[in-house]
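Quick one: structure tokens for this chain, please?
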Amino acid sequence: MSASGLGSRAIIGRFFADLEVYMASAWVSKVGMKFDSDQESETYKWLGMVPALREWIGGRNAKGFRENGLTITNKKFEATLEVLVDEIRRDKTGQVMVRIGELVTRAGGHWGSLASTLISNGTGSDSGLCYDGQYFFDDDHSEGDSGIQKNLLTATEVPALDVTTATAPTPVEAARAILGVIAYMLSYKDDQGEPMNSEGREFLIMTSPILWQYIAPAVYNATVNAGETNPAAAIIANSDFKISVVANPRLAYTTQFATFRTDAKTKAIILQEEEGIKISAQAEGSAEEFNNDRHLYGLKALRNVGYGYWQYASHSTLS
């Protein structure tokens, strides 16, 4: 489609249509839960506070909100694309629309960029604290009746993480490590002492592209190592478990991978939005066109991210 035949309204319409398609398949939509905000910051005190059913003895035992919680402050973000009027007039091959498509990629990938920073910081930094005051990935989570729990995992917790070569596990080694981590996560308890992941059936494995080339075959190849059956692929094929693998170039992992439960009603990451992506244009007939012979397409969003339930995520290190 030639951009010379498109006005700003058509360009904006294409932007939002393509953005919707992009977000529908984005990994961040699987590990993050979106909350609308109507103020500068929001505090989440509901984390960990859903009571379990108990025998009715001596009246109801109501559970309120926590004293502590997690506060997320919204931040303002922008991106502005310049399109010269002469570029629009001369364009015969849709090059301007290609640039709009790249703007869609930037907008759609913004949640992923913010969430990737959270994941990277989760093993220990001032910004890596979650609602219980611990690092998101830690070895001493404890609240209420949960007991001490870990989601910073090594071969001590999951023996299958001990492989021949940590930077290049075989598909069978990687498959057993993944299954071992998921099995460990199924035992996590909430502050009522109740299992958090007993119904968990869908999980996402995230690592760097370098390690992804070894992790992915562990999930997607039915047979490996001269015809040996892949244990992870066999479980996926013969049960209701679903496991997906994502290569995230923003992660500097060499021997690590993160695992997220994706089928819970709540998620490991909170996506907070006061104002969603908006696109404004100074285009046909504008002062910008008259003075500078160009059109401007500006994106703006008010949003931020934070940690949700740590029990729906784990960080594992191969050794």
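The longest helix spans residues 8-24.
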